[in-house]
Backbone:
């Protein structure tokens, strides 16, 4: 067996350094109960950085008696707000150890994040409310990642003592009302999500919500991206769709757009109008957000699925809802497929699986879809044996036990199959009259047919 002696030496040096640092720390805020052999290199450790600085990770406790007054169901919101307030101080050049003096290589340590909690592991590298940063009873548990240039254990320990006293002083001075407000904000979102079923909804898009996002090098996914700086057009429900009013946990009433159970909801419009951004915000409605994120009252069921094109290996999957026959090279039957699936077959499987498992809501974006699975065409009806989603909606609606939110821009047949819809113009939501659209589409096809025949006769 081959052993990397250099790695072993580094680990030994790191273990020795963290042990020496701990021996010299005197602050009562160090959570010594967690400093066990089992937690070493997990909850506490040192690591030499590429710039030769030393990263020191240790768990700490800060106490505030008034935390006992906070509602336990929203404690992660209060925790997240404390962390973000510390980050704001870091931007003011305070607590430099927590940011590596603001160095770009250490952005993960101090990057703002307005997501309170998420069902995905996105952003786990950022400092946020989680299993290591939380409030319990009158204690605030924080895992601090500190950067030091001097590797002398006594010097680092002394700096850690000074840092924790300054942090404790700052935390004690945070107004209770700020923590309480964020606590209630988190509970409001959880409570509304729990009420969706009783309201007959799968999603609620609150008026004045701001879906547009700002991305950074360490927040590249829309679920953790922050609110867009500058102009960010607020969502307002078109009056023709009759905004619904819902009461929040704290008694306040807000209005917004409700997406109903088993509804086919269309979002359409020209390019670069915010269609995908709105769909991503609805998808992000599974998460809880801090005040100021812009998506606090975009609330969506957690029982959600997305269908996209792609490629996968099938081992007996069922796509018979959409496929009446299989193309050459694919073995089995539509009910039991074996082989490398095409983009449309992959998407068909995703939708059919979601329907069979009782998913509340399925999200589809035309830009990421297999078009032949969504709408019918003359050539596809000749060659492929595919029954598109638009046809199933029109003729076999009883097979669709989930709601759909579908982004379209050029798939007119799919748009016409919707129950309700909006179109985005200048990033604002406008009422889409589906019945009127169907009538105009019918006239459009009649005119198109005449033009085709005239052109043929000219030849």
Residues:
């Amino acid at each position: 067996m081959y052993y990397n002696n250099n790695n072993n030496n580094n680990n030994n040096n790191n273990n020795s350094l963290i042990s020496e640092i701990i021996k010299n720390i005197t602050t009562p805020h160090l959570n010594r109960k967690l400093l066990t052999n089992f937690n070493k290199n997990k909850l506490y450790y040192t690591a030499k950085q590429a710039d030769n600085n030393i990263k020191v990770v240790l768990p700490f406790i800060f106490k505030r008696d008034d935390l006992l007054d906070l509602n336990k169901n929203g404690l992660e919101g209060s925790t997240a707000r404390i962390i973000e307030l510390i980050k704001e101080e870091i931007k003011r050049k305070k607590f430099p150890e927590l940011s590596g003096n603001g160095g770009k290589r250490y952005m993960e340590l101090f990057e703002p994040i307005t997501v309170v909690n998420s069902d995905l592991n996105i952003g786990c590298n950022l400092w946020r409310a989680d299993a290591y940063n939380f409030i319990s009873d009158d204690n605030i548990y924080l895992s601090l990642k500190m950067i030091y240039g001097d590797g002398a254990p006594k010097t680092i320990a002394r700096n850690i003592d000074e840092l924790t006293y300054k942090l404790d002083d700052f935390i004690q001075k945070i107004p209770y009302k700020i923590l309480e407000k964020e606590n209630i904000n988190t509970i409001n979102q959880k409570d509304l999500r729990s009420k969706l079923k009783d309201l007959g909804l799968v999603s609620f898009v609150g008026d004045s919500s701001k879906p547009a996002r700002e991305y950074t090098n360490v927040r590249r996914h829309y679920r953790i991206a922050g609110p867009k700086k500058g102009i960010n057009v607020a969502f307002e429900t078109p009056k023709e769709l009759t905004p619904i009013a819902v009461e929040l946990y704290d008694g306040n009433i807000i209005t917004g757009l409700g997406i109903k159970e088993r509804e086919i909801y269309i979002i359409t419009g020209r390019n670069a109008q915010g269609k995908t951004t709105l769909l991503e915000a609805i998808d992000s409605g599974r998460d809880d957000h801090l005040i100021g994120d812009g998506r606090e009252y975009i609330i969506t069921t957690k029982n959600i699925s997305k269908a996209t094109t792609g490629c996968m290996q099938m081992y007996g999957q069922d796509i018979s809802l959409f496929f009446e026959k299989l193309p050459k090279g694919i073995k089995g039957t539509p009910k039991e497929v074996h082989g490398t699936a095409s983009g449309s077959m992959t998407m068909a499987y995703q939708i059919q699986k979601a329907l069979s498992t009782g998913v509340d809501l399925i999200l589809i974006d035309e830009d990421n879809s297999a078009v032949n699975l969504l709408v019918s065409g003359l050539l596809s009806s000749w060659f492929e044996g595919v029954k598109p989603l638009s046809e199933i909606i029109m003729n076999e609606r009883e097979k669709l036990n989930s709601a759909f939110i579908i982004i379209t821009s050029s798939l007119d047949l799919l748009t016409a199959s919707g129950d309700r819809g909006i179109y985005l113009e200048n990033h604002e939501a406008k009422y889409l009259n589906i019945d009127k659209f169907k009538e105009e589409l019918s006239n459009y096809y009649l005119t198109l047919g005449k033009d085709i025949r005239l052109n043929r006769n000219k030849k």
